[in-house]
Amino acid sequence: MAEPTTWRRYVAMGDSLTEGLVDPYPDGSPRGWADRFAGHLAAAAGEPLQYANLAIRGRLLRPIIAEQLEPALALKPDVVSLWGGGNDIMRPRVDVDAITDELERAVVGLREANIDVILGTGIDAKDSPVLELTRGRTGVFNASVWTIARRHGAHVIDVWGMRCLRHWGMWHDDRLHFNSIGHERVSQAALAAVGLEPRPGWDDPLPPLPPKTRREWLEWQLTWAREHAGPWIGRRIRRTSSGAGRSAKFPQYVEVPPTSNDPAE
After folding, report:
1. Which of 67, 110, 143, 247 has a Cα-to-Cα distance from 101 of 20 to 30 A?
2. pTM of the model as a whole
3. Which residues does residue 256 pair with via DSSP β-bridges, in sequence order?
4. pLDDT band for position 142 (50/70/90)?
5. Do residues 49 and 256 touch, judged by C-beta distance below 8 A?
6. What is the per-residue pLDDT for 250?
7. Could you tell me where the DSSP H helices lie in 6-76?
Protein backbone atom coordinates (compact mmCIF):
# COMPACT_ATOMS: atom_id res chain seq x y z
CA MET A 1 0.00 0.00 0.00
CA ALA A 2 1.12 3.55 -0.69
CA GLU A 3 2.03 5.90 2.14
CA PRO A 4 -0.75 8.42 2.90
CA THR A 5 1.66 11.30 2.34
CA THR A 6 2.04 10.17 -1.29
CA TRP A 7 -1.71 10.27 -1.96
CA ARG A 8 -2.54 13.11 -4.35
CA ARG A 9 -6.06 12.10 -5.45
CA TYR A 10 -8.79 11.08 -2.97
CA VAL A 11 -12.37 10.02 -3.76
CA ALA A 12 -15.04 9.60 -1.07
CA MET A 13 -17.98 7.23 -1.63
CA GLY A 14 -20.96 6.80 0.68
CA ASP A 15 -24.17 8.20 2.10
CA SER A 16 -25.07 11.20 4.30
CA LEU A 17 -22.24 10.43 6.74
CA THR A 18 -19.72 11.13 3.98
CA GLU A 19 -21.76 13.78 2.16
CA GLY A 20 -21.65 15.66 5.46
CA LEU A 21 -25.10 16.85 6.47
CA VAL A 22 -25.62 19.51 9.19
CA ASP A 23 -21.98 20.68 9.05
CA PRO A 24 -22.14 23.23 6.23
CA TYR A 25 -19.53 25.20 4.36
CA PRO A 26 -20.00 28.99 4.54
CA ASP A 27 -22.05 28.84 1.32
CA GLY A 28 -24.46 26.35 2.92
CA SER A 29 -23.33 23.26 1.00
CA PRO A 30 -22.80 20.12 3.08
CA ARG A 31 -19.44 19.41 4.66
CA GLY A 32 -18.38 16.44 6.74
CA TRP A 33 -15.58 14.24 8.01
CA ALA A 34 -14.32 13.40 4.49
CA ASP A 35 -13.97 17.07 3.52
CA ARG A 36 -12.06 17.74 6.72
CA PHE A 37 -9.96 14.60 6.24
CA ALA A 38 -9.03 15.76 2.73
CA GLY A 39 -7.62 18.97 4.20
CA HIS A 40 -5.66 17.03 6.80
CA LEU A 41 -4.25 14.72 4.10
CA ALA A 42 -3.13 17.78 2.15
CA ALA A 43 -1.46 19.13 5.27
CA ALA A 44 0.38 15.83 5.85
CA ALA A 45 1.66 15.89 2.25
CA GLY A 46 2.50 19.60 2.40
CA GLU A 47 0.64 20.38 -0.81
CA PRO A 48 -2.94 20.62 -2.14
CA LEU A 49 -4.95 17.44 -2.66
CA GLN A 50 -7.29 16.57 -5.53
CA TYR A 51 -10.58 15.55 -3.89
CA ALA A 52 -13.92 14.26 -5.19
CA ASN A 53 -16.97 13.38 -3.08
CA LEU A 54 -19.57 11.12 -4.73
CA ALA A 55 -21.63 10.44 -1.58
CA ILE A 56 -25.39 10.99 -1.60
CA ARG A 57 -27.60 11.02 1.48
CA GLY A 58 -30.05 8.19 2.06
CA ARG A 59 -28.24 5.66 -0.14
CA LEU A 60 -28.17 1.99 0.80
CA LEU A 61 -24.89 0.12 0.39
CA ARG A 62 -25.79 -1.63 -2.87
CA PRO A 63 -26.81 1.65 -4.62
CA ILE A 64 -23.66 3.33 -3.28
CA ILE A 65 -21.58 0.67 -5.02
CA ALA A 66 -23.76 0.50 -8.15
CA GLU A 67 -23.83 4.28 -8.68
CA GLN A 68 -20.48 5.44 -7.32
CA LEU A 69 -17.90 2.71 -7.91
CA GLU A 70 -17.44 3.13 -11.66
CA PRO A 71 -17.24 6.96 -11.46
CA ALA A 72 -14.70 6.55 -8.65
CA LEU A 73 -12.57 4.17 -10.71
CA ALA A 74 -12.76 6.52 -13.70
CA LEU A 75 -11.18 9.29 -11.62
CA LYS A 76 -8.08 7.08 -11.10
CA PRO A 77 -7.60 8.03 -7.44
CA ASP A 78 -4.78 6.99 -5.14
CA VAL A 79 -7.22 6.28 -2.30
CA VAL A 80 -10.96 5.77 -1.93
CA SER A 81 -13.04 5.82 1.24
CA LEU A 82 -16.06 3.52 0.89
CA TRP A 83 -18.36 3.88 3.87
CA GLY A 84 -21.98 2.77 3.92
CA GLY A 85 -24.37 0.24 5.38
CA GLY A 86 -25.90 2.38 8.10
CA ASN A 87 -29.09 2.98 6.15
CA ASP A 88 -29.38 -0.75 5.44
CA ILE A 89 -28.96 -1.64 9.10
CA MET A 90 -31.75 0.73 10.14
CA ARG A 91 -34.24 -1.03 7.86
CA PRO A 92 -36.60 -3.56 9.49
CA ARG A 93 -34.95 -6.35 7.49
CA VAL A 94 -31.40 -6.56 6.16
CA ASP A 95 -29.21 -9.43 5.00
CA VAL A 96 -25.90 -8.32 6.49
CA ASP A 97 -24.01 -11.18 4.83
CA ALA A 98 -25.32 -10.18 1.42
CA ILE A 99 -24.42 -6.51 1.68
CA THR A 100 -20.96 -7.23 3.05
CA ASP A 101 -20.39 -9.65 0.16
CA GLU A 102 -21.15 -6.70 -2.15
CA LEU A 103 -18.79 -4.54 -0.13
CA GLU A 104 -16.00 -7.08 -0.47
CA ARG A 105 -16.46 -7.29 -4.24
CA ALA A 106 -16.16 -3.51 -4.45
CA VAL A 107 -13.01 -3.53 -2.33
CA VAL A 108 -11.51 -6.23 -4.56
CA GLY A 109 -12.22 -4.11 -7.63
CA LEU A 110 -10.56 -1.08 -6.11
CA ARG A 111 -7.52 -3.00 -4.90
CA GLU A 112 -7.10 -4.67 -8.30
CA ALA A 113 -6.86 -1.15 -9.72
CA ASN A 114 -4.02 -0.45 -7.26
CA ILE A 115 -6.19 1.94 -5.24
CA ASP A 116 -5.83 2.12 -1.47
CA VAL A 117 -9.12 1.69 0.40
CA ILE A 118 -10.55 3.10 3.63
CA LEU A 119 -13.62 1.43 5.15
CA GLY A 120 -15.70 2.44 8.16
CA THR A 121 -17.47 0.48 10.86
CA GLY A 122 -21.03 0.99 11.99
CA ILE A 123 -21.62 3.30 14.94
CA ASP A 124 -22.56 1.97 18.38
CA ALA A 125 -26.17 3.02 18.98
CA LYS A 126 -26.21 2.14 22.67
CA ASP A 127 -28.42 4.57 24.65
CA SER A 128 -30.10 5.81 21.45
CA PRO A 129 -33.87 5.29 21.47
CA VAL A 130 -35.06 2.79 18.86
CA LEU A 131 -31.66 2.58 17.11
CA GLU A 132 -30.24 0.66 20.06
CA LEU A 133 -32.18 -2.31 18.68
CA THR A 134 -29.74 -2.44 15.75
CA ARG A 135 -26.60 -3.02 17.86
CA GLY A 136 -26.52 -6.77 17.18
CA ARG A 137 -26.64 -6.52 13.40
CA THR A 138 -24.17 -3.62 13.49
CA GLY A 139 -21.77 -5.85 15.41
CA VAL A 140 -22.03 -8.55 12.73
CA PHE A 141 -21.52 -5.93 10.01
CA ASN A 142 -18.44 -4.58 11.77
CA ALA A 143 -16.90 -8.03 12.11
CA SER A 144 -17.21 -8.45 8.34
CA VAL A 145 -15.69 -5.02 7.69
CA TRP A 146 -12.60 -5.94 9.71
CA THR A 147 -12.35 -9.30 7.94
CA ILE A 148 -12.59 -7.66 4.51
CA ALA A 149 -9.93 -5.16 5.50
CA ARG A 150 -7.59 -7.91 6.66
CA ARG A 151 -8.05 -9.94 3.49
CA HIS A 152 -7.43 -7.06 1.11
CA GLY A 153 -5.19 -4.65 2.97
CA ALA A 154 -7.72 -1.88 3.62
CA HIS A 155 -7.72 0.72 6.38
CA VAL A 156 -10.65 0.87 8.85
CA ILE A 157 -12.09 3.90 10.64
CA ASP A 158 -13.31 2.38 13.89
CA VAL A 159 -16.13 4.70 14.96
CA TRP A 160 -17.72 1.85 16.97
CA GLY A 161 -14.79 2.13 19.38
CA MET A 162 -14.77 5.94 19.68
CA ARG A 163 -15.54 6.92 23.26
CA CYS A 164 -16.29 10.54 22.40
CA LEU A 165 -19.20 9.59 20.12
CA ARG A 166 -21.15 8.33 23.14
CA HIS A 167 -21.69 12.00 24.04
CA TRP A 168 -24.72 13.79 22.54
CA GLY A 169 -22.56 16.88 22.12
CA MET A 170 -21.11 15.18 19.01
CA TRP A 171 -24.50 14.80 17.34
CA HIS A 172 -27.07 16.86 15.50
CA ASP A 173 -30.54 17.09 17.07
CA ASP A 174 -31.76 14.26 14.79
CA ARG A 175 -29.36 11.84 16.60
CA LEU A 176 -28.49 10.30 13.23
CA HIS A 177 -25.86 12.72 11.92
CA PHE A 178 -22.74 14.24 13.40
CA ASN A 179 -22.51 17.95 14.10
CA SER A 180 -19.35 19.88 13.24
CA ILE A 181 -17.53 18.63 16.36
CA GLY A 182 -18.45 15.02 15.58
CA HIS A 183 -17.33 15.30 11.96
CA GLU A 184 -13.99 16.75 13.03
CA ARG A 185 -13.45 13.97 15.57
CA VAL A 186 -14.19 11.35 12.91
CA SER A 187 -11.71 13.02 10.54
CA GLN A 188 -9.13 12.56 13.29
CA ALA A 189 -10.12 8.89 13.57
CA ALA A 190 -9.51 8.61 9.83
CA LEU A 191 -6.01 10.01 10.26
CA ALA A 192 -5.34 7.40 12.94
CA ALA A 193 -6.76 4.67 10.69
CA VAL A 194 -4.30 5.39 7.88
CA GLY A 195 -1.29 5.73 10.15
CA LEU A 196 -1.05 9.52 10.34
CA GLU A 197 -0.85 11.41 13.63
CA PRO A 198 -4.20 12.67 14.91
CA ARG A 199 -4.17 15.61 17.25
CA PRO A 200 -3.81 14.84 20.99
CA GLY A 201 -7.05 14.02 22.78
CA TRP A 202 -8.96 13.40 19.58
CA ASP A 203 -11.08 10.65 21.21
CA ASP A 204 -11.40 12.20 24.66
CA PRO A 205 -15.03 12.45 25.82
CA LEU A 206 -16.57 15.90 26.21
CA PRO A 207 -17.52 17.05 29.74
CA PRO A 208 -20.81 15.49 30.95
CA LEU A 209 -23.97 17.33 30.05
CA PRO A 210 -26.08 18.73 32.90
CA PRO A 211 -28.64 16.15 34.08
CA LYS A 212 -32.18 16.60 32.75
CA THR A 213 -35.23 16.68 34.93
CA ARG A 214 -37.90 14.13 34.11
CA ARG A 215 -39.92 16.84 32.38
CA GLU A 216 -36.92 18.03 30.34
CA TRP A 217 -36.05 14.46 29.37
CA LEU A 218 -39.62 13.79 28.21
CA GLU A 219 -39.73 17.00 26.20
CA TRP A 220 -36.36 16.13 24.63
CA GLN A 221 -37.68 12.75 23.53
CA LEU A 222 -41.00 14.12 22.26
CA THR A 223 -39.29 16.86 20.27
CA TRP A 224 -36.98 14.31 18.66
CA ALA A 225 -39.89 12.00 17.82
CA ARG A 226 -41.96 14.83 16.32
CA GLU A 227 -39.27 16.63 14.35
CA HIS A 228 -36.94 13.81 13.32
CA ALA A 229 -38.12 10.25 13.99
CA GLY A 230 -41.63 10.84 12.61
CA PRO A 231 -40.49 12.22 9.24
CA TRP A 232 -37.87 9.46 8.95
CA ILE A 233 -40.49 6.76 9.56
CA GLY A 234 -42.78 8.49 7.07
CA ARG A 235 -40.15 8.24 4.35
CA ARG A 236 -39.73 4.54 5.10
CA ILE A 237 -43.49 3.99 4.79
CA ARG A 238 -43.60 5.92 1.49
CA ARG A 239 -40.43 4.15 0.32
CA THR A 240 -38.79 7.47 -0.47
CA SER A 241 -35.25 8.63 0.24
CA SER A 242 -33.87 11.92 1.49
CA GLY A 243 -31.42 11.67 -1.42
CA ALA A 244 -34.02 11.24 -4.17
CA GLY A 245 -33.09 13.39 -7.15
CA ARG A 246 -29.80 14.53 -5.64
CA SER A 247 -26.41 14.28 -7.30
CA ALA A 248 -22.86 14.19 -5.93
CA LYS A 249 -21.53 17.49 -4.61
CA PHE A 250 -18.01 17.04 -6.04
CA PRO A 251 -18.31 14.59 -8.96
CA GLN A 252 -14.98 15.82 -10.33
CA TYR A 253 -11.82 16.74 -8.49
CA VAL A 254 -11.60 19.99 -6.58
CA GLU A 255 -8.34 21.22 -5.12
CA VAL A 256 -8.20 21.17 -1.32
CA PRO A 257 -5.49 23.24 0.38
CA PRO A 258 -3.67 21.96 3.48
CA THR A 259 -5.71 22.33 6.68
CA SER A 260 -4.19 23.00 10.08
CA ASN A 261 -4.65 20.06 12.45
CA ASP A 262 -4.79 22.17 15.61
CA PRO A 263 -7.11 21.69 18.60
CA ALA A 264 -9.82 24.02 17.26
CA GLU A 265 -13.03 22.15 16.57
Report:
1. 247
2. 0.88
3. 49
4. very high
5. yes
6. 96
7. 16-19, 33-45, 61-74
